[in-house]
Task: structure prediction
Amino acid sequence: MNTKKSETKMSERLQSLDVMRGFDMLWIVGGGSLIAAWAKGTNWGWMNVLANQLEHVSWEGFRFEDLIFPMFMFISGVAIPYAVTAKVEQGADRKPLFHKILKRGILLVILGIIYNGNLRRDFDGFSDMRIASVLGQIGLGYLFAATIVLYTKSFKTRIAWLVGIMAGIALLQLAVPVPGHGAGLLLDREWNINAWLDRMLMPGRLHGTIYDPEGLLCIISAITVTLMGALAGSVLRDGEPASKRKAATLAIGGASLIAVALLLSPFYPIIKACWTVPFNMLTAGISAMLLSLFYFAIDVKDWTHGVFSYKILFFKVIGMNSITIYLGHSIIDFEHASHFFLGFTALPMGPWVEILGAIVLEWLLLYYLYQKKIFLRV
Result:
């Protein structure tokens, strides 16, 4: 990992991808809390509905909050053809590229363990450590999806890998019995195959005590979300300039994934905590449709001027340093700094002012790094 001045010109990047990544990260670093505070303060019906969408479902089902993590994995996959395939086409040796992919995956696993707060705790060996993490799952998803892209040449072969992994996960989740309990118990939090394997094989502490939403099968299953992102990225860089056709292809592909997920859901439920195949297809489908929208507006229609330029800059600044702010949001107490300056407004106006202040402070830090062209690269 290194922090350095980027040698890549901003114009050479896929702007829509940076903006979409920033849109995704905003909800993680305070956007959701801000909406919740507004809803509580106003008690407006439509605001309460929106705030409800920014809470995870308890188990089966889907809300917008359940999209945020897989959307980030999808976005990381979209970048793979630009980072990997482009270099292979330029004649780069695959072995050093694989080493770089492997390094990135391992570093994200390590950062995830640190993010879990393991450095600030007293441990009884490894039993009290949480090894699984969001960053670790992103890193491993990228590692395997990028390796598949690196060592395969055709779009069809990558689809075959995608279908194969999905079929394997579906077989395990629906047909392989948990000893003494049976198969396909996805609605049972304790005795579904994911939870049972986590208790048998996952080292350390499980996030859900009897299961981990970033556990072993979840990690393997989530590879497909990153791989679907890589397929979308291949569509975007097929050699043709930015076009409506590419945007339409992404939209149609996304709508198809959503339709299949909903058709499967009555007998193969949509469960984020298990990363079931319908959940993966649903979230990748929605992500593809959102990418189509961002891509059409920014890269095809070039709505980057006037009032749009400020909105794009706002999200782009966040998106280009997403790992920085994800870690920084946990390590740096932006809320305390916001309270120091804005605490006097909380009583007359509501706590949302302090939350908004923290978001502004986070963004100003990222804007400084953006202006200096300093980005955390993993």
